Amino acid sequence: MNESGTIQSMLTAKTIAVVGLSDNPAKASYRVSAYMQAHGYRILPVNPAVESVLGEKSYASLSELPEKPAVVNVFRLPAAIPAIVDEMLTLGLTDLWLQQGIVNAEAAAKAEAGGIRVVMDRCIMVEHAHRL
């Protein structure tokens, strides 16, 4: 978890599903996703309470996405992570990024045991900016 090579590999992927992406520009999920989108990433919003954000249709769950994302970036409380991991395992998704402040060691261990690479408690925007 949090290996430099894994972080670098995830940053080279160009399609990111953002679970918990808000349409409120004051929220971190919006700011981080807007930054990543401005740097050439395709953002796939996953939030059942939002119709669209950043010019993209929002989906209720990972399983409803029209394409397979390279990375699943999560802006949800730690208690929501186990269900996200289960859905990723079912769908065969392999890269999970838990944003800064989101820690669920048990869910991360289950993800890794199932073949999912995990970055936890790191900001994808900060990591991207450091590697420019």
TrEMBL record:
Domain CoA-binding: 10-103
One Pfam short name: CoA_binding_2
Protein origin, superkingdom: Bacteria
Signal sequence bounds: none
InterPro entries given in the database record: CoA-bd, NAD(P)-bd_dom_sf
Protein name as it appears in the record: CoA-binding domain-containing protein
Organism: Granulicella rosea
